[in-house]
UniProtKB/TrEMBL annotation:
Pfam families: Dimerisation, Methyltransf_2. Transmembrane segments: none annotated. GO terms for molecular function: O-methyltransferase activity; S-adenosylmethionine-dependent methyltransferase activity. PANTHER family: O-METHYLTRANSFERASE. The active site is at H307. This is O-methyltransferase ZRP4. It comes from Urochloa decumbens. One of its GO terms (biological process) is methylation. The lineage of its organism: Eukaryota, Viridiplantae, Streptophyta, Embryophyta, Tracheophyta.
């Protein structure tokens, strides 16, 4: 039996292959937003580990003590200098502090703001932002004497005890070691520090049984793509060719090709990935490297890719994408699915999930960006305009135009 979805803006039926999976059946029972909210709930619960990890890092680096010594309010560069943290970790410490301000452990205020905004309102965390102690962070000040001789043990000692299971995890140990480094080591990431030098890609390839990373990414595609087609299928309408960059075994491309039979879909991925690609599908596979070149097409699709990379790498990828597509007036564009931190609903679970995921992706030197950070790399890569469509829960669709 065929399942039909309706693209709201066009009011035309879209025939979808029923083999997509469980999400299609769920879409018959729940709305897209109900499913995205349920997905958010599971992610929020799963990522709550990083709230504890962020608190553990702040206690280890004695951030509250540094702010206290600076008069109870300080910018991040001041905190880094006072706490003796390497300046190369300033951007990552900003991400930790963003989690701790959303959680209410610290508050942050920008010089042009009359008062600190509530935790659910993601404010700018640039070098001018001022971090202030709260009652909670005041309890962390000076709480480092755990000896039996301590006359007045600090309340933070019980917190350290409760954090024990988190602090003993490999990921947490890797993050603590990361912030203790005195200088940048190119190519190194907290994940590698946690797992004896192995990258996430090493573990995904060689330890799939205990670390089913690729299966997890495939399941995410199977969940999200039917919702993308239902809520924003118009972003694909009118295209005749599409390249899914780093598209793995072609799950997303196959779903798009089934929805739009006239759309020629190609997957670009590394040779060892393409070698495992299924045969006899409506998707073509090209072995290559997105840092070298991308096959020509009307549009390039980047689902959950750019957040894996730093700014310089993203600019390089996007420049290659720009060379692969025609001008905007001829229909050329880039379709990105990624987070835009601060975009979408402002409820606390939504905001917390975004900033907690940012700590997760920090472990592989990735970044979850706000709009200003996205704009910077877009324009640096030579693009002229973009549109953010925040309809995918904690993620958004971004249309990027040359």
């Amino acid at each position: 039996m065929s399942i039909w979805l309706l693209i709201p803006s066009k009011n035309q039926p879209l025939k979808i292959d029923p083999s997509i999976g469980a999400t299609m059946a769920l879409l018959a029972e729940y709305s897209s937003q109900e499913l995205l909210q349920a997905h958010l709930l599971l992610w929020h619960q799963s990522l709550s580990f990083f709230k504890s990890a962020a608190l553990g890092i702040a206690m280890d680096l004695r951030i509250a003590d540094a702010v206290h010594r600076l008069g109870g309010a300080a910018t991040l560069p001041q905190i880094v200098a006072e706490a003796g943290i390497s300046p190369c970790r300033l951007r990552d410490l900003r991400r930790v502090m963003r989690v701790l301000t959303v959680s209410g452990i610290f508050i942050v205020q920008h010089p042009d703001e009359v008062a600190p905004l509530p935790p659910a309102a993601v404010t700018r965390h640039d070098d001018a932002a001022v971090y202030k102690l709260t009652a909670a962070s005041c309890l962390l000040v000076g709480g480092h004497d755990s000896s039996p001789a301590a006359i007045h043990p600090s309340p933070s000692l019980s917190v350290q005890l409760f954090l024990g299971p988190c602090l003993d995890s490999p990921v947490s140990r890797g993050m603590h070691a990361w912030f203790r480094q005195e200088k940048e080591q190119p190519g190194l990431a907290p994940f590698a520090l946690a797992y004896s030098g192995k990258t996430i890609w090493d573990r995904a390839e060689h330890e799939a049984t205990v670390f089913p990373f690729n299966d997890g990414m495939a399941s995410d595609t199977a969940f999200l793509m039917p919702i993308v087609l239902k809520e924003c299928g118009e972003v694909f309408r009118g295209l005749t060719s599409l390249v899914d960059v780093a598209g793995g075994l072609g799950g997303a491309a196959a779903i798009a090709a089934a929805a739009f039979p006239d759309l020629k879909c190609t997957v670009l991925d590394l040779p060892q990935v393409v070698a495992k690609a299924p045969t006899g599908t409506n998707v073509q596979y090209v072995a290559g490297d997105m840092f070298e070149s991308i096959p020509p097409a009307n549009a390039v699709f980047l689902k959950w890719i750019l957040h894996d990379w730093g700014d310089d790498e993203c600019v390089k990828i996007l420049k290659n994408c720009k060379q692969a597509i025609p001008p905007r007036e001829a229909g050329g564009k880039i379709i990105i699915i990624d987070m835009v931190v601060g975009s979408g609903p402002s409820d606390i679970k939504h905001v917390e999930t975004q900033v907690l995921y940012d700590l997760l992706i920090m472990n592989i030197n990735g970044v979850e960006r706000d709009e200003e950070e996205w704009k910077k790399i877009f324009f640096e890569a030579g693009f002229k305009d973009y549109k953010i469509i925040p309809v995918l829960g904690v993620r958004s669709i971004i249309e990027l135009y040359p």
